[in-house]
Amino acid sequence: MTHDRPPLLQVALDLARRGLPVLPLREKRPPANCRSCRGTACGGRPHMRVPGPCRCPLPCHAWAAATAVPGTLTSPAWAADWHHATTVAYHPGGAGLTVVDLDDPAAVAWARATLPATRTVSTTRGEHWIYSGAMQSANKVRPGVDIKSLMAYARWLGPGAGAMAPLPDAVRALVVREMPVPAPVRPPVAMSAPGGGGTCPHRSPVYLERGISMAEQRITAATSAIHTTVYSVFLAVLSAHGRCGCLRDAHIERLFTAARAKGESLRHCADAWANAVARLGV
Known about the structure:
By secondary structure, the chain is of the alpha+beta class. The protein has 10 helices and 9 strands. Helix 7 packs antiparallel against helix 8 (226-241) and helix 8 packs across helix 10 (266-280). 36% of the residues are buried.
C-alpha cells in the first residue's frame, strides 16, 4: 500500500514516472553486488564501456541496477534497501543526461567562467550542472570536477534551477583530454622465463588465471583509496607473475579495465603500472 512505502521509495517512484532510472543509496553507497555474476559482467559490456541493464535477480552494480520500472522498485528484492536508504540516486546516462559534478567553490567558479549556463543543483560542497545529452563518464577530469553520465550514478538532490542546456563540446572535451587513446600497452620489460627460457614455476595457466581474477575482484571491490588499491594490486601481480614470462597484453588490459571501471584514467593506470615495474625492477 502507498502509505506503507518508505518516503524515499515514493520519491523514486515519482522520478521513475518522469523517466529517470533510480536506485537507493545508503550513505552514498549503492546496494551490495549480488552473487549471481562476477565483477560488473551483467551491466552491458563494461570492458568496452558499453552500458546495459542489470540482468541479475537482485539489485546490484550501482548504475546498472537503476530502473524506471515501478514494479521493480516496489519488488520484495528491493524492500530492505529502501527501508535502509538515506537518499535516492539516478543513472544520468540512462535518462540521456550528463552531470558535471563540481565538488568545491573553485570548481564552481571555473564552471561559471567556462561552461554554458544550464540547470544547476546545489550540493553539500558545490553544485551539479546538468546537461541534456549522454557521454562517457570520468572522475577528476580537472581539480574538483567529475563527469557522471553513462555507467555512473548521481545523487538526486532536487530538480534544480534554470533551463537545461544541450551537452556542450567543452564538457565532452574534458574527457577526451583526460582519457586519450594510448599506444598499446606492452608487457612489462620484455619478460622472459628465468634462466634463459627455463620452465615457468607456475606449471599451469590456472594459477595465473586465478591470480588475475583475484586482482580484478580486489580492484572492483574497492570503495575508497582507489589509486592506492590499483597500485598495490599491480605490485602484487608483477611480484607473482612479472618475471616468468606468463603475463600477456590481454592480462594487463583486464587489470586496466577493472581500474577504469572504478574511475581511474588510462594515464593513471599506465603511470601506476610503470611505477610498479620500476619498483620491482622486472
